[in-house]
Amino acid sequence: MSRRSNVTKGWQAPQPVKATEKTPIADEVVEEVPAACPKCHSTDREQLEGTITRNISGLSKDGRIFNRVRWAYCTCRGCGQRYRVIRRENTLQ
Description:
Radius of gyration: 17 Å
Helix content: under 10%
Mean pLDDT: 80
Number of domains: 1
Order of helices and strands: EEEEEE
Low-confidence stretches: none
Shape: globular
Oligomer: single chain
Number of helices: 0
């Protein structure tokens, strides 16, 4: 028996939005994790870099609706720690 026998044929993972495409600005940032540097707890950080955006819908922990998720990296200005930020956003389409 093949190990891939339980894989559904024709299914593909959602593709990220290309960097060349114009992505609309979020109307509302529902949730941002983490909101501060995990090392020094500073909220002062550099600009977000290396952003990956996917159109994924769902509910945040407090029950607010989001329809886009962004994963990005930033650098803390306080200690220089580089960390990943996950932003769940709600955009009007």
